[in-house]
Structure formats: C-alpha cells, structure tokens
Amino acid sequence: MSINKCNCKNAKHIEVEHIQTDDVQVVVNLYRKSFRNHFLGHMGQRFLTLFVSEFVNSTDNFGYVAWLKNEAVGFILATTTDTIFRKFYRKNFRVLVLITMYRYFHDPFIRKHIGKRFGHIYTALKALFSFSPRHVNDHKQQEKSRTLVTSRILAIAVDKHYRGLGVASELTSQFCKEMKAKGFKEVGLSTLPWNRRAIGFYKKDGWIEEKSNETSVYFFRIL
Asked: Is the Cβ–Cβ distance between 84 and 158 less than 8 Å?
C-alpha cells in the first residue's frame, strides 16, 4: 500500500512505501549497488537479506522504498531503538559468524577494513553472552556519547540514475512525518565526513549538524 506520492520535476508518480517481505531482495540489490565502498555493502547477499528483513513489519525499525514505474529507485532504513544491532547479532549470531569468516577470506575489502568494525564485533559478543544491567548501561552510555537522538536513519540511498529528482527528500519527508505522528520531537542520522554530496543534501533538506569527529558527521532534524 502506498503511503506517499509526489510529482517531481523530471519524474512522475514516485511512490514511497513501507518495505514489505517481497521488497527485501530489491532493497538488498540497491544497497549493494549504492554502498560499493562501504563495509556492509561487501558483506554479501545473505548478510544484507537478514539485515534488511529487520525493517519489515517491526515495531521499532522502519524501512521505506521509493518506486518509479515499478522500479525501486531509493530506500531508507531507520530505527527508534538503540538496541537494533544487539538484537540482530543475538538472533543471527551463528550464521553471521560463518558469513563474516567467508567474506574475510574471499573479499580483500573486508580484510582491509574489518579492524574498523571491532566495535560491532564487541557488541555482537556482548549481545550473545551478556545480559546484566551493567551491559545495558554501558550500551546506553556508548549511544549517549555519539548522539542524544534515538529515532535515526541508518541508511539512505538513491539509485545514481535517479538522483536530483527529489527521491531522497520524499523518503526523508515520509520518515519524519511518521516519526512525528509517533510523538518524536527530533530525528537524527550520520554520514561519513568525506561524503560531501550527502552532507550538502542533508543541510539543504533541513537537517542541522549536531557534531562531528574524524569518522562521522551527525545531524538532527526538529519535527
């Protein structure tokens, strides 16, 4: 069921819908094309299928896909919880270990950059073995050190052939509308410091820079 439509300057009838089970592979393929130079983009079809599935019919996670003439041209993955990765790792721990090992031995990109993902590996191990209050407090403190906004976009992408048509704005607009309806006052996201195109878009789209460091630039938007 479509939840939003727009008429863009160079494209008509762009539809933004919640991601459904039948859309998962479409979004996975778009993710892999859009994030060729990102770690998760190199984790393979199986990993991304499990990950994108977390945004289907969830009370905490939200996924949207933009369609143009029955072709998926963009998507958003977002969450309102700070435990999405802990739950994801705990539920899929064994298969994720096998996938990671396989990707490590078969993909030079993974071998080169896996050291930067030790934070996620640590979270995965804690998700499997730790259930103490201290664990919960530690995790909340880690999130607090990054940002105070809990409703966040985790990934947004538009097919390169459809950029400049307003697709990304329609996706963020729908996300913000739904979060406002749920009572959130602010939403957030982050991007890489070198991604000047994304940073320029977020500023133009009404996002306010919250803070930055050597690895990320954080934005928020008042609803």
From this structure: no
Amino acid at position 7, single letter: N
Rounded to two decimals, the pTM is 0.83
Vertex 176: Cα angle to 119 and 203 (nearest 5): 75
Sign of CA dihedral 77, 6, 201, 39: positive
What pLDDT does residue 135 have?
Answer: 43
Yes or no: say if 104 and 59 are a contact pair by the CB < 8 Å rule: no
**How many domains is the chain partitioned into structurally?**
1
Give the mean pLDDT of 200-220.
Answer: 93
Residues 116-121: what's their mean pLDDT? 61
CA distances, 16 to each of 19, 98, 149, 159, 173 (Å): 9, 35, 24, 14, 10
Mean pLDDT within 42-47: 94
Q: Specify the CATH number for the domain of residue 70.
A: 3.40.630.30
Contact 176, 221 (CB under 8 A): yes
Q: What is the DSSP string of 147-161?
A: -S--SEEEEEEE-GG
Q: Give the mean pLDDT of 118-139.
A: 51
